[in-house]
Design brief:
Layout (H helix, E strand, L loop, with lengths): L18 H14 L19 E2 L7 E2 L6 E6 H6 L5 H5 L5 E4 L7 E4 L7 E5 L2 E3 L21 E8 L3 H4 L6 E7 L7 E11 L7 E13 L3 E12 L21 E15 L2 E14 L2 E15 L4 E13 L11 E16 L4 E15 L18 E16 L4 E12 L3 E13 L4 E12 L11 E4 L7 E4 L7 E14 L2 E17 L16 E4 L5 E4 L1 E20 L2 E14 L6 E2 L6 E10 L4 E10 L2 E4 L8 E3 L2 E11 L4 E8 L20 E9 L1
Parallel strand pairs: 6-9, 24-28
Antiparallel strand pairs: 1-2, 3-8, 4-5, 6-7, 8-9, 10-11, 10-38, 11-12, 12-13, 13-14, 14-15, 15-16, 16-17, 17-18, 18-19, 19-20, 20-21, 21-22, 22-25, 23-24, 25-26, 26-29, 27-28, 29-30, 30-31, 30-32, 32-33, 33-36, 34-35, 36-37, 37-38
């Protein structure tokens, strides 16, 4: 009984629980103690059906039982190839596409919805730099050293019933390594050298050290990393007018973290974390300091978890090229939940609360409208919100489980909203599982979008362009999503197929704007003019979006030496707010990933990967005219790993084997790195 749980696990109350529920409870206990570790194949391989995940329902459960579409990226995946930005690896997962606007760090898009609809979590705690960097927020996939990641769980589809606002598209939960019962350490250095001398090289170094200070009672963990990518030189050809688009930007990141874990007795654990990061993207500097304190308890009635978290993000540069306008955003939250197995009706209940307060100090942009009485009245704004949520997994039969849930969010400025969902999991047999559900989600306006005192220069110029402002008249966005599909695992084969459809209403938008002073009053979100004559536009609810498609994945192990994998995503994402539906930018309709791993010897492995993106639009004017499309392309990589000793591994390879590149011809376009050579040394002790 609970054989995989630590011997220190407490005896459960003398209640005869159903065997299936006892198994789930044991998994939850193991997860709380940090002993459950997901096992799956390489990135973009469907995780084995015995994999344990925690993000889909707030408690540990087998992947085949989870009421959601989930992919898992493991620690081994992160070590097989250079990963300076996690977004690149996330893009190999079915249902995930990347926004590549302006050569920024790619934004993660789930099922055709933009990165603003993807909730990023670190060990279940939300991270969001949007208020500090409302434009070009390409920072939120890099706050954790890759060497310290245990696995990443990607939940595709609305998860607002558990996680609230920002989870309309789905959730990416970065789960870090537990401290463990023995001391462990690791160090990693790697470099990527470009074949094209005008392209920027990159390098990375990181370390991790963790172990017990007092056996079974007190543990400590220290982590750190530094990575750098040099800026490209003249890799793009000049246009007819002689101008040349810039290549990929320079990036410099440094991170440091510390964790202290205290286990006063067999039923309780207390974990304290401190993290500090500094990220430099093309001269725009962002610093983040974060602290958290988490208590986990295992009781006779079930499990409990209580988490306090706070972070401060300092934008040291601002958001306008050539200007220095620093700001500071801070978030404080308190959240708790309980997981309770209920014998009556074979139920498993998860219930909890979430309280969050956000604050922004921005002397440059939180000034009100120039020329009005409120101008320069206060450089600060804040909002508070709280939520209650509950989910009930009901085991109808041994084959059928239904999950019903709802979250009620109360926002200081936008009142209360419900986010219900219903999901069914049905096992046709031991090999095939059907899954499907309906979810409703909402997304509140950001701190900036909803503040009428916030404003910023726009339309391509800080002096002769236009001006955009927040508005307290906008409504929260709502999304309704359906999905239906299956998972299978028989013999050497496993995989899945899932159809999805999402309708997004009251989409918050600021695309309607122009620097043309005569034309400006014809826009329905036109506010007026600044004293210097620049037109002013406010955020508004004008758009609706529909995204539908399918996700397919397959993996096979024809022998102990070979592992094969493939996935495919079809996405049809359109802005349906006007008379004619318009395609969304940076959403290729077809994306495919192929891969193979060969264990040539007990110490040598060889891996190959191919990713294909069909044509995609990179510019779609609201008129629907003069759309700009980027042609499809495919890129292949070849990597190798040699375990020199038990403690030392050497990895290397060639990325973009065929040297597939193309010129960036407009500011909306993006570059792909050409052929480059990768070398890494990883030591563990």
């Amino acid at each position: 009984m609970c054989a995989h749980v630590s011997s220190r696990a407490p005896r459960r109350a003398a209640v005869a629980l159903p065997s299936w529920r006892l198994s789930v409870l044991c998994l939850a206990l193991a997860a709380a103690q940090g002993h459950v570790q997901a096992q799956s194949g390489p990135a973009n391989e469907p995780a084995a059906l015995s994999t344990v995940v925690v993000t889909a329902s707030g408690n540990a459960q087998e992947l085949r039982e989870a009421p959601a579409s989930i992919s898992v990226i493991t620690r081994e995946d992160l070590q097989m190839r250079p990963v300076q930005e996690l977004a690149e690896l996330l893009g190999t997962v079915e249902g995930v596409t990347l926004s590549r606007s302006g050569n920024q760090v790619p934004g993660v898009q789930l099922r055709g919805l933009g990165s603003a609809y993807t909730l990023m979590l670190i060990d279940g705690k939300r991270v969001n730099a949007t208020s500090a960097m409302f434009r070009g927020n390409d920072y939120d996939t890099g706050w954790v050293p890759t060497d310290e990641i245990e696995r990443i769980e990607i939940v595709r589809g609305p998860m607002s019933s558990l996680y609230g606002s920002d989870a309309i598209g789905g959730v990416v939960n970065i789960i870090t390594r537990p401290i463990g019962k023995k001391w462990r350490g690791s160090a990693r250095i790697e470099t990527v050298v470009q074949q094209d001398k005008d392209a920027g090289d990159s390098r990375l170094a990181g370390f991790s050290l963790a172990g017990p200070v007092v056996a079974d009672t007190l543990g400590v963990k220290l982590t750190g990393a530094y990575d750098q990518r040099d800026a490209d030189g003249n890799i793009n050809s000049p246009a007819a007018n002689g101008t040349r688009q810039a290549g990929l930007q320079h990036i410099r990141n440094r991170l440091f973290g510390a964790q202290l874990a205290f286990t006063p007795d067999a039923r309780q654990s207390i974990t304290a974390d401190v993290d500090t990061s500094r990220r430099d993207h093309a001269g725009f500097l962002m610093e983040r300091d974060a602290v958290s304190l988490r208590h986990k308890g295992q009781w006779g009635f079930g499990n409990s978890e209580l988490t306090f978290a706070a972070d401060e993000i300092r934008n040291l540069t601002g958001m306008v090229t050539g200007q220095v306008n620093p700001n500071k955003a801070s978030t404080t939250s308190l959240g708790g939940k309980v997981n309770i197995p209920v014998r009556w009706g074979n139920q498993f209940i998860t219930a909890g609360f979430d309280i969050r307060h956000e604050k922004l100090r921005d002397p440059a942009n939180l000034r009100g409208l120039p020329g009005t009485a409120d101008f320069n009245a206060s450089p600060e704004t804040s909002i508070g919100q709280w939520a209650l949520f509950i989910e009930d997994e009901i085991r109808i039969t041994d084959k059928l489980a239904i999950t019903l849930g709802n979250r009620f969010d109360h926002h200081e400025n936008f009142g209360g909203h419900n986010s219900p969902r219903a999901y069914a999991v049905y096992h046709l047999n031991d090999a095939v599982t059907l899954k499907g559900g309906v979810s409703r989600a909402f997304r509140a306006p950001t701190l900036l979008q909803g503040s009428p005192n916030w404003g910023s220069v726009s339309c391509g110029s800080a002096t002769v362009g236009c001006y955009i402002v927040g508005s307290n008249a906008i409504k929260p966005e709502t999304g309704t999503s359906q999905e239906l599909g299956l998972q299978f695992a028989r013999g050497i084969h496993s995989g899945g197929l899932m159809f999805f459809n999402t309708d997004l209403k009251n989409m918050i938008d600021i695309t309607n704007r122009t620097a043309n002073r005569a034309l400006a009053p014809s826009y329905d979100n036109f506010v007026g003019y600044l004293p210097d004559g620049r037109p002013i536009f406010r955020y508004q609810n004008i758009a609706s979006v529909r995204s539908r498609g399918l996700e397919a994945s397959w993996a096979a192990r024809p022998s102990a030496a070979w592992n094969l994998r493939a996935n495919y995503t079809y996405t049809d994402a359109k802005n349906t707010s006007g008379a004619i539906a318009l395609p969304l930018t940076y959403r290729p309709r077809h994306v495919a990933n192929l891969g193979a791993d060969w264990s040539a010897t007990s110490t040598l492995t060889v891996s190959g990967a191919l990713r294909y993106h069909s044509a995609q639009f990179i510019s779609v004017p609201s008129s629907g005219q003069n759309k700009v499309k980027k042609a499809g392309y495919a890129i292949a990589d070849l990597t190798m790993g040699w375990r020199v000793t038990e403690a030392l591994t050497l990895r290397g390879g060639i990325l973009n084997l065929t040297n597939k590149t193309f010129d960036r011809t407009t500011s909306a376009d993006f570059n792909e790195d050409g052929r480059r050579y990768y070398l890494a040394l990883h030591a563990k002790f």
